[in-house]
Amino acid sequence: SMAANQKLYLGIDFSTQQLKPTVIDDSLNELKDYEKCSIQFDGELDYKTSGGVIRHSDGRTITAPTIMWVEALDCLLQKLKSCNFPFENVVSISGSGQQHGSVYWRKGSEDMLKSLDPVSTLAEQLQSAFSIPDSPIWMDSSTTEQCHRLEQECGGPQVVATRTGSRAYERFTGNQIAKLNITDTRRLIETERICLVSSFGACLFAGCYVPIDYSDGSGMNLLDIQKRKWWPEAMDLCCPNLQEKLGEPVPSNTIVANISQYYVSRYGFNPKCKIVAFTGDNPSSLAGMRLQEGDVVVSLGTSDTVFLWITEANPQLMGHIFVNPVDSSAYMALLCYKNGSLTRERIRDTCAKGEWKVFDDLMGTTPPGNDGYIGFYYDDPEITPPVEGLHRYGPDNSTLSSFPAEREVRAVVEGQFLAKYVHAHSLGYRITPNSRILATGGASQNKSICQVLANVFNAKVYTGATNSASLGAAYRAKHDLMVAGTPFCDAVSSASPYTLVATPEEDVHRNVYLPMSDRVATLLKQLPSF
Fold it and tell me: What is the model's pTM?
């Protein structure tokens, strides 16, 4: 049972398939009762979406009805109300949104937001608020032309990456806006404000337009991540008057407003409840996993994802660099690998009788470094780097067509982790004495895999972090109410500690994996890209 005056912090994730709340108290305990109030877009709302999205007939255009997200918020708050949720105890709200997606407010919409009537739902009142009713989302790949143009006009892909943190990508918001400027010119002219999904969520709670934050703003190909200002060259290529349509970006820890009177009257929120800038789901996950300087998250799933906390950014043609969501003077980097657990499992099935135990035993029969044998296994076309096929090398870098089972098993694990180490380094990542590797996902349960990870990166490996954007939003809601300048790691220090699963063997890192990482970097550069 809850103390009557207990302070609560609410995090809300506007993700692709659902709207999900996480509630924490002052001691960072999650109030699990309210997670069941999530809204699944397909099952609970009637917009004929599949996986929360609508796929258009060209096979490349993928959108979501903006009003669906509005109605989902109505339903979520209604569910919380019927669970007797103590709205009056919430002192701050933050949130996260699927990255890159965009929302187009029609001229006059801010007046609607400012005069919401608590008797009616948001969806009833904002039905006509969106000049472009279907929001382009991150799965959309219809803007290839705009990407080419951005890179051509601005000095090439590396210049775009250096400025904005990533080369031009189809899903990035600037390229989506540039396409709409051609296909939907009229309605774009009628647009008063363009939001990301994250800042759109914050607008709903604030009852006015609120700024885009630096971190999610870094996923647009429009923000100069060094200057933390819009990049004029890219802005001018997109559409006229883009600066006033976007507003000025702000640090992610900005308190953007008090909650709108609408929620005070309709649900009983406290009128002093603060709205903290919302951010993207990946940045928010970084907060949820409580990263600090020098940390790495290695998420081992169907595809592998690496999150890095970095101090000095060095953007490349691969991977993405964003302004850090919990420390606006730092950065975070994101690397995605298509060939993750499915590739590891294929080799387990072909070489280790389908058993992780046998896989481990086989790994135990070969030394770290695999006697100089190296393999890269791209069953599916890879994106980091853009190559495909199976590539095996002997100690003299000669190519081989096969390995014995015990070599193959070690080669897939070492090859995957050394590539991650090489890529992390190229983006500006540096290990510190306090660096932690947080391993999540299925393969993180495997001892020998975690030991290789520890030795490759020369850092301790921990498990127990959950990849939760809504938890990150709740943590950020709490952090941003603390004394200005409080480091994020202090704000979340009372959360339950992670479990140490592997400690690096420094000599193995220095004598085996460091020289091997140079070989891997060279071999990867020589692979033919598609």
Answer: 0.95
